[in-house]
Amino acid sequence: MVSQSTEGSSKTKQISIEAAAAHFFNGMTLMVGGFGGVGAPPGLINVLIDRQIKDIYMISNDTGFPWIGPGKLITEKRVSRLIASHIGSNPEAGKQMQNGELAVEFIPQGTLAEKIRAGGMGLGGILVDVGFGTIVEKGKQTVEVQEKTFMVEPALTADVSIVYAKQSDTYGNLIYDKSARNTNPLVAMAGNVTIAEVEEIVPAGQLDPECVVTPGVFVDYIVQSKGVDWKWVWELKQDTK
User: Fold this and answer.
1) Sign of the alpha-carbon dihedral angle for 131, 36, 159, 196
2) Can you tell me the distance from the alpha carbon of 158 to that of 197, in angstroms, rounded to the nearest whole number?
3) Which residues, 6 or more positions from 171, have their beta carbon under 8 angstroms from its beta carbon?
4) Contact 103, 81 (CB under 8 A)
5) Are 13 and 4 in contact (CB under 8 A)?
6) pLDDT digits over 147-164, tens only?
7) What is the pTM of this model?
8) Which of 18, 63, 35 is nearest to 223 (CA)?
9) Which helix (H) or strand (E) holds 126?
10) Residues 204, 170: contact at Cβ < 8 Å?
């Protein structure tokens, strides 16, 4: 159940980032939006690090870069298990995997996105034909549909999903900025608790409904972001290549 605070006479899902931290715990399953670090919530990731949250089972498209996006959690060794489509942009993730410090399950990007979407929609899983004849097939249940065989890929959900948005109203309707949209709409649906870090929060009714991507019904809490200097992020990416 979402506990809404009051701001004047209006209800709001906005809480402080300190209050958001109360939903993080050791051993949690954490789903993080973003793609290569862009669209990942920097403030919430920093809170996870500051609060010494550890043994995280993380689900994300990738591991960003060593000090960008979810990559910071990897570098700080807060993640013990990971589901991702690739980790190639973060050498620290590769090193921890090779050393046995980080258990990694790779899932093709499209399949991963669909597994997250299925979790958000309350489905049990999806049917795929990608991976037959490879190690992906090992241990997977198969079904036949219209004379074609598919593997069953279970849906993915998380204890907490954290996402990043450009705008939100006080109800949690979210608008994303260009490519920062990436996996965030899917991740926002799949958390038992979803917390959105937002650049600008406006009163309910001020957003153009045609621009809303994630309806507020999927969002439990919103926190004010201090913003991201994407030029700095780009420069840091170049330095870490």
Assistant:
1) negative
2) 17
3) 12, 13, 204, 216
4) yes
5) yes
6) 999 999 999 999 999 999
7) 0.90
8) 18
9) strand 125-128
10) yes
